[in-house]
Design goal:
2 copies of one chain form a homodimer.
Chain A: H1 4-22, H2 27-43, H3 45-61, H4 66-72, H5 76-91, E1 99-104, E2 110-117, E3 120-125, H6 130-141, E4 145-149, H7 155-172, E5 179-181, H8 187-193, E6 202-206, H9 209-218, E7 231-235, H10 241-253, E8 262-268, H11 269-286, E9 289-292, H12 294-300, E10 307-310, E11 324-330, H13 333-343, E12 348-352, H14 356-365, E13 370-375, E14 392-394, E15 402-404, E16 410-421
Parallel strand pairs in A: 3-4, 3-6, 4-5, 7-8, 7-12, 8-11, 9-10, 9-11, 12-13
Antiparallel strand pairs in A: 1-2, 2-16, 14-15
Helix pairs in contact in A: 1-8, 2-5, 2-7, 3-7, 5-6, 6-7, 10-11
Chain lengths: 424, 424
């Protein structure tokens, strides 16, 4: 009998073997497979919900928080939404095989680049079982084999969903082995997975900061990680105050637990007395706690019903993931740029201003995956940017930056058509 | 007084500070700086050649091989060629600032991508002093700051060249600190450099396999490495024999010490008896030693004056970097594809055939940076592909594959022009 590590290695080899054929599978076959997944999510909802119920009851029994239980729970309507998302991935254009930059050199060689899948993607994720379907669908669409490793808390749901995917795609003509699922939740298998750089071309961790750090430190293959977003919104002296209030409110409050939510609000001194009381009053309605520097505190302290806390050094550069914002009054655009340079995590940064030169400087000078003028940082998202679903948001500079969609799971190879050329 | 490590850290900080301004420096200023470098290489040739003479004499005294001494040596004509190469980089289009994929979303947000430099590049290289100029020029053109660390054997030449570059670029308006040179050859500084992932965005090792392995294993930031090329040329049954002989001869003999030279020759069994004696006779004139499998040996053994050695398992997948080739007769295109899949290093692979379907299968199925039909693998080179000079050849899949030119030293950021949009 195979040991769990040997089983994992066999899954890796099977994924690699499948990836060779997956690489040039037609869009037709891949889309058929996605439609099969979507259909089966509805047809087999009984099995999936029953498996999910086991996870839910175990979570409840182990004292999981209501928020966590909510993330874990599947329902008929949630399955319907997941099935719809798979159809949306099927409807995306297939980038694989695109040939570009093709040209004829003076010696007659025809040289160009062809978009190809990366090969085998490893996905390590937590909690929401829909990630099993979402990542499998994006990998399939982009012609990659995938090895899925979900969290212990959703093992029954994930196992059932992975089995569904495996059966659905083989029916469409996808090579056996293209979708692998690790059904053993032993942490040692993750350690081994992260060593398999002869098999896995890219690892994507999706979850909390702890998971991302663990994977980044241990992985011996490239990791595209992000997830950590320390996002600033800078209110310039010439901002339209109404827009600036609405944007800061949206960026902080609309979904405070995610990486593209506002963490620090910077305000030009010349507009701070007009602007701060208004945004503070709006934020207060939503229960936002403000960690203010001295100048912001001086402006706001007489205002009743605000949750004000004097800011400490640790508030700058902190990702709050909750209804807390750091607030700082700055003397100039330059000071704002320097603050962002120092404390930003390279995720999403915004300026709110009506002054043209301030926009152009901010967009030029801020070094982040997504740089906004006059909009909420909450738009940093593959779906919002029109990429379809995303496997994550990269704050790295190499390969791909910002939301990672189907195309970001590909690479290229040079193809050269010759007629006997040799190098002189 | 600062310790060498503190000095290195100060150089890193200076490079990072410079990179912020370099990122949006105009092409005009950068090209002016490159012209200054080119001019100074001619104007200051006396100083440079004097410094090079010290390295040369030290190398000679320490028993350096003639080949190594030749790589180390500069001359007036070599300086002239280097100066010309710098002008060629200046003449390349500047990709930085290119805006692409820009579109207006239904909510009115204008979203697109803008090409920006990576930031700070670390370059660790050996022997040839021209690399100091070559990498500095490509980094400058692409708006990156650079920290150069050349080999001990060329320290005087590299110091003089780095000083020349630093002076030349400041005269053009490039920010101070953009080009850093580590003038201390203590290995401990390389260790520290490879830890500076808060400063350095990408490290490029350029040299032998030992250097590349060392840097890849130690670096805490992304490394683009390649250099190791186990290159196959497969002679299909329908190959044009004359072309196939000329291509294999060129790929093995024209410059055997480089990564894109032929290592293994695979021949379809149906053409082996016609083809092998011809290529062997040509190779013999150049002194090529052939490590043959049994079938190849049987065909060639009666031929006089060949250097034949029975192949061992270690010959497959070996980068020879010399006038040695592994030779194997295969039963089919499939066997060739499987052999390349197993033993290739993902660098450059070629098929020689007149059959259309064989070309299409080979280009589709071989997973390598550069896949050729009917041409010599020796063309894998930034200059040959029209990228201008190259900083190296990547055999990785992420970010960039194959020759790395100016554009491959950039990344992009998303830029978003809004008018008050918030996420619903």
């Amino acid at each position: 009998m195979k040991s769990p590590v040997e089983e994992l290695e066999a899954k890796g080899k099977a994924a690699k073997a499948a990836s060779r054929r997956l690489a040039y599978l037609s869009a037709e076959v891949k889309n058929k497979a996605l439609h099969n997944i979507s259909d089966d999510l509805l047809a087999k909802k009984g099995e999936i919900l029953a498996a999910n119920q086991i996870d839910y009851l175990e979570g409840e029994a182990s004292g999981m928080s209501a928020a966590m239980l909510d993330r874990l729970m599947l329902s008929e309507s949630r399955l319907g939404a997941i099935a719809q998302d798979v159809l949306a991935v099927a409807a995306l254009p297939d980038p694989v095989g695109d040939i570009f930059d093709m040209r004829t050199l003076p010696n007659g060689l025809q040289v160009g680049k062809k978009l190809v899948p990366l090969g085998v993607i490893g996905a390590i994720y937590e909690s929401r079982p829909n990630v099993t379907i979402g990542i499998a669908a994006l990998c399939l669409k982009s012609g990659n084999a995938v090895i899925l490793r979900g969290g212990k808390e959703a093992i029954h749901s994930n196992s059932a969903l992975a089995k569904l995917v495996q059966e659905a795609v083989i029916g469409a003509g996808v090579p056996d082995g293209a979708v692998q699922f690790i059904d053993n939740t032993d942490r040692a298998l993750v350690d081994r997975l992260l060593e398999m750089n002869d098999i896995i071309n890219l690892v994507i961790p999706r979850g909390g900061a702890g998971l991302i750090r663990f994977v980044s430190e241990r992985a011996t293959m490239p990791v595209v990680s992000g997830g950590i977003g320390v996002c600033h919104t800078y209110i310039d002296q010439s901002a339209d105050v109404a827009k600036a209030v609405a944007i800061a409110f949206n960026a902080k409050v609309q979904r405070p637990t995610v990486c593209n939510a506002l963490d620090s609000l910077l305000i030009h001194a010349d507009i701070a007395e007009r602007y701060l009381p208004l945004v503070a009053a709006e934020w207060a309605k939503a229960g936002v706690e403000m960690h203010c520097d001295k100048r912001a505190l001086a402006i706001l302290k007489s205002q009743p019903s605000l949750k004000l806390v004097p800011a400490t050094d640790e508030d700058w550069g902190k990702e709050f993931l909750s209804l807390v914002a750091a607030v700082k009054v700055v003397a100039s655009l330059d000071e704002a740029l320097e603050h962002i340079e120092r404390y930003g995590s390279g995720h999403s940064e915004a300026i709110i201003t009506e002054e043209y030169q301030a926009v152009m400087r901010f967009l030029n000078e801020v070094d982040a995956a997504c740089v906004y003028a006059n909009a909420s940082t909450r738009f940093t998202d593959g779906g919002q940017f029109g990429l379809g679903d995303e496997v994550g948001i990269s704050t790295q500079k190499l390969h791909a930056r910002g939301p990672l969609g189907v195309k970001e799971l590909t690479t290229y190879k040079w193809i050269i058509f010759g007629s006997g050329q040799v190098r002189p």
